[in-house]
Every structure is written in C-alpha cells, then in structure tokens.
Amino acid sequence: MEAIVHTVGTKVWIKEEKEAWIKGEVYKAEEEVVLVRTEGTGAEVKCKPEDAPLQNPHNNRGVDDMTRLSYLHEPAVLWNLNTRYAYDDIYTYTGTILIAINPFTSLPHLYGEHMMDQYRGVDIGEYAPHVYAIADAAYRQMRKEMKGQSILVSGESGAGKTETSKLIMKYLAYMGGYSDAGEQTGSGRSVEEQVLESNPLLEAFGNAKTTRNNNSSRFGKYVEINFNDKGVISGAAIRTYLLERSRVVAVNNPERNYHIFYQVRGFKQVEAKYPALLFKQQLDAFVQKIFPMIRDNVRREITPMLNHCIHTPKASGRTATRPAGNAPAAAAGAAGAQAATHKSWTDILAVFDTLLATVKLNFVPKVLVQADYEREEIDWSYIEFVDNQDVLDLIEGKLGVLDLLDEVCRFVDAKGKDFAEKLYNSGSCKDSRRFSKPKTSMTQFIVDHYAGPVKYETANFIDKNKDFVVPEHAALLGGSDQAFVAALFTESGAAAEAAAAAAPGRRGGAAKGVKFSSVGSQFKKQLAELMVQLHAMEPHYIRCIKPNESGKNDSILLPVPGGTDSTLLSTW
Ligand SMILES: Nc1ncnc2c1ncn2[C@@H]1O[C@H](COP(=O)(O)OP(=O)(O)OP(=O)(O)O)[C@@H](O)[C@H]1O
C-alpha cells in the first residue's frame, strides 16, 4: 500500500452514516491527524490520515477498468461503479474480471447480433466492458490453446447470474452455430438451438418467485458446451445442483412455487373459460409448444402428471406443507387422502428431477457419456483450497457442520435444537475460530464467513437435509402403471436405496451398512466434482452485483459504514 500523503487542499473521502462515503478537502494536516471539511454539508471532521483515503483525479464518467484507478480502495470502487451505473454502464473490468451490475431494466442497445459482431475477435479492453467480450475471450482462448475454458458467474440472489449466463450462451451459440448437430441429437434441432431452448424449460421447473428475486433459480447450474476443432458447437450438457425440492410442498407467503404450476394452471383456466378458443389444443400440445425440446415420449408421460397435480383437491389446514397460492396448493394434495397427497408430492418431485435430467440427456454426445463414466472413478478425496480453508473445514470437514447434521438426521425425532446442541458440543465446531454460539439462543449458530458473520437458525435444517423417499412411497411409485414413473423407482434402484435409507430413522437409530442419503452429503460430493472440472480449465470470472434491494434502476445502495451485517439471520 502506498504511503498516504495529506497536505492542505488534498481531496479525500470521509466515512458517513447515510451515504457511506462523502467527499471532503483537508484544511489542516498534521502527522497523526487531519482536519477535513466535507463537500456540500461543510461539516468539519477530525480523523487519522488513514481514515481519509485519497480521491482519484477528477473523472466524470469513471474508468472502465478499475485497475487504472490511481488509488484503489472502497470509496474509489464504489464511486466508480456508482458513477458508471448512472450512465447505464453496467459493466466494468477489474483487470480481466468483469463486474456486472444488475440494471433492473431492459437495455436493448447493449445486446443483440450487431453487438455480438462488434465484440467478435476483439481483445478485452478494446471496447467498453461487456459480457460478450468475456465470452469471446474464452472462445478464442479455447481455439488458440485447444484447452477447456470456464466462465464462473457469481453473485447473490437477484444479482443477474441467470441473465448473464443466458447472454454468454447466446454469444457462444452465435459464434459456434450453424452446425449440423440436429442430426447428432436425433431431435431435428441443432445443439445451439437446444442449448438456448433449455433455459425456459429449466426456469419453468426450477425457478420461482422469492422475496429476493421474482425469477430465482432454485438450483445451481453447470452448462457445458462442446466445440469441435473448427470451433463449431458439437454437443452440450447441463448439470444441475441441489434443486430446492422442499419448495414443491412448502412455500411461505409471499414466495411462490415453481413457475410451471402457474403456467399450466393458466392454460387450464383459459381452456375452461374459452374452450372454443383453444379448439382441439390440449395440455400436451401446450407443453410441446412451450418446451419443444422435451422428447415426445417423455412429454406424453409428464403431461398427465402435471394435469393430475393441478386437479388434486385443495389441501385443508396443513399450512406447513402447503404451497402458497392456489395453483400449487394442488401439489399439497388433499388432507383427507394422505396417500394420494404423498403420491402427488413424490410424483412432482420425480417430474422435476427427471425433467432436469432429461434436458441433460438430450444433449449428451457420446464423448460426454464416457466422461461421465470416468467421473465415477474420480477419487473424491479432500481438495485443498488455499483461501477460506478454515470455514470449509468447519462446514464440510470431518465432523463439521454437514457431518453432524447427517448424524442428527438419522434419528427420526431429531429437532433443530438437537442439531444446534450437537454443534455446540462438538470439538470440531466449538474449537473453530469461525464458529460461535449466540449468547441467548439454543437453536442458532454463527459462522464467520469471509464476508462477515452469518447467524443460522437450525429449525429447518433437519427436514431440508433429508433426501430419501419413504419406502411406502417408493413401493407405490415403483408399481405405477405409468412406465415413466415406475422406471424412476425401479431401474435406477432408487426404491431400494430409499427403503434402506429410511429404515434406520424409522427404528430411531442408524443401522450398520445403510446408505444414508442427505442433501448435505450430495452437496459436498457435487462441489468436489465441480472443483475437479474447474481445475482442469482456464477460468474467466464475472461477478454480478445487485445494486439495491428495491430492484429499481435508480441507484447503487452503498454499504453502511461499519462493515457487514452481523445480525443477518439465515435459514437453509
Ligand atoms: N443484464 C440484464 N439486463 C436486464 N435485466 C437484468 C439483467 N440482469 C438481471 N436482470 C434483471 O434482474 C432479475 C434477476 O436476475 P437473475 O434472475 O439473473 O438473478 P440471479 O443472480 O440468477 O438470481 P438467483 O440466484 O436468485 O437465481 C432478472 O429477472 C431481470 O429482471
């Protein structure tokens, strides 16, 4: 860090309660202390020189690469992003990392073929920062070095990851299009068409309105696009991570269930009200129209299930397991008909998972199948991350938070407080400097993440971690006259696994040799797998930022001085 030199007249930043940082000018400077007059209010502030970071030379539009800032510190970064955002310059580089600030409004001048053309083959930095520039750099590097590239898109919920990923996919489809891959997949549609068409399908079954985002993806996504040696798309695969399945049966107002329920219900309402309008159109045709990529046989099996879900009588009373809103209430089933209810739920869960898997299978070219087999051979031993290691140890290490959660989940009557107690008493947690117990609570715990401490409420952890099907349900579905449903619970052996997994819990303790399936353990495995893949590729980074909580294209919400919000309460 360069020495901070303050003299009379030096332009600086001063921390302020409401605005986070305001501009000021030094009017008296001593070795240990400076006196600053703030801009606008004219307030006089006395502080240490290091608490008055220097302003960068005047520039009304900010800089498009933050490594060009003479002074790189929090107020400089915030000011730069804020200034650019005011001009709808939502993209900014920090070296080769792209920062993308959600505009919360359509900016058509930024996208489309004419813009793709502009960024084609052009080095990063030559034109204004753009997501196309990152996609282009990855594409060109792949061709030049003949090496796999990855683009990591990160950010909090509602920051714009999904939209950014779609823009990348469009760009890559544009660059690597015109293949004859339709023949290859046997679907009559080219791979790039299928890649793009997969988005509405995945969003229908995997996205829902939450308090943070009206179109929140409730699963992680890894999209793999393969190119041949001519740079033409030859195949694609989508791997999904941890779909939030509990949402299907339990949603809290004002959140909603998965979009598909509302889409199909909308169709049914129109059909009921205007039968003449729809004429001979059926739900099946509707599903085919909006999701052309679902194979005919799968669609024919899924459609009646969706129909059945929509028509299951409304649940009464059991709000805890009842989705909010009318449409998905059908998914909760009738309270009086418990078996039917469970059938509905598990049907839907099966549909969800299978649809996501179907999208994947539709794309998979033979090379990838082999890669999948090879994947099974990978040794999932611990992968070392240099950064953040102690938090990772705490969460996914031996006898860490996830291990202990699995232990507790093996007992049928376990409650959140039992889990909390286990954490408080376990050496691996209580001895970690990243772990603490809130003084007054017996159900919460705090993890000190790199961005600050987060308080977790354990109440829902147990239910959300269980990932097995009750044996009766597995048996019921395995015997279904719907071949599609039956196959899910017989061919894959899921029924046997589910029965085994559920058995110990039902006896009130863990049995020897039983394969226990939990969301936490899957998470660990999938993450390890992802890291192996990413390590083999050249990474590119895009950091998405949600500028404010209102979801409006007005301002960047500046952080309040004092750092992170230590009272944030998270549930899993
Ligand atoms: N580049 C963009 N242009 C216009 N609107 C955008 C853009 N990026 C994001 N948005 C808007 O912000 C909303 C939220 O973005 P998005 O769904 O991509 O967030 P996310 O990071 O994927 O969130 P989650 O983690 O909850 O899935 C979008 O539905 C869209 O309205």
From TrEMBL:
<protein>
    <submittedName>
        <fullName>Myosin-2 heavy chain</fullName>
    </submittedName>
</protein>
<feature type="domain" description="Myosin motor">
    <location>
        <begin position="61"/>
        <end position="572"/>
    </location>
</feature>
<dbReference type="InterPro" id="IPR027417">
    <property type="entry name" value="P-loop_NTPase"/>
</dbReference>
<dbReference type="GO" id="GO:0016020">
    <property type="term" value="C:membrane"/>
</dbReference>
<feature type="binding site">
    <location>
        <begin position="155"/>
        <end position="162"/>
    </location>
    <ligand>
        <name>ATP</name>
    </ligand>
</feature>
<dbReference type="GO" id="GO:0005737">
    <property type="term" value="C:cytoplasm"/>
</dbReference>
<dbReference type="Pfam" id="PF02736">
    <property type="entry name" value="Myosin_N"/>
</dbReference>
<keyword id="KW-0009">Actin-binding</keyword>
<dbReference type="InterPro" id="IPR004009">
    <property type="entry name" value="SH3_Myosin"/>
</dbReference>
<dbReference type="InterPro" id="IPR036961">
    <property type="entry name" value="Kinesin_motor_dom_sf"/>
</dbReference>
<dbReference type="GO" id="GO:0016459">
    <property type="term" value="C:myosin complex"/>
</dbReference>
<keyword id="KW-0505">Motor protein</keyword>
<feature type="domain" description="Myosin N-terminal SH3-like">
    <location>
        <begin position="7"/>
        <end position="57"/>
    </location>
</feature>
<dbReference type="Pfam" id="PF00063">
    <property type="entry name" value="Myosin_head"/>
</dbReference>
<dbReference type="GO" id="GO:0051015">
    <property type="term" value="F:actin filament binding"/>
</dbReference>
<dbReference type="InterPro" id="IPR001609">
    <property type="entry name" value="Myosin_head_motor_dom-like"/>
</dbReference>
<keyword id="KW-0067">ATP-binding</keyword>
<dbReference type="GO" id="GO:0000146">
    <property type="term" value="F:microfilament motor activity"/>
</dbReference>
<keyword id="KW-0547">Nucleotide-binding</keyword>
<comment type="similarity">
    <text>Belongs to the TRAFAC class myosin-kinesin ATPase superfamily. Myosin family.</text>
</comment>
<dbReference type="GO" id="GO:0007015">
    <property type="term" value="P:actin filament organization"/>
</dbReference>
<dbReference type="GO" id="GO:0005524">
    <property type="term" value="F:ATP binding"/>
</dbReference>
<keyword id="KW-0518">Myosin</keyword>
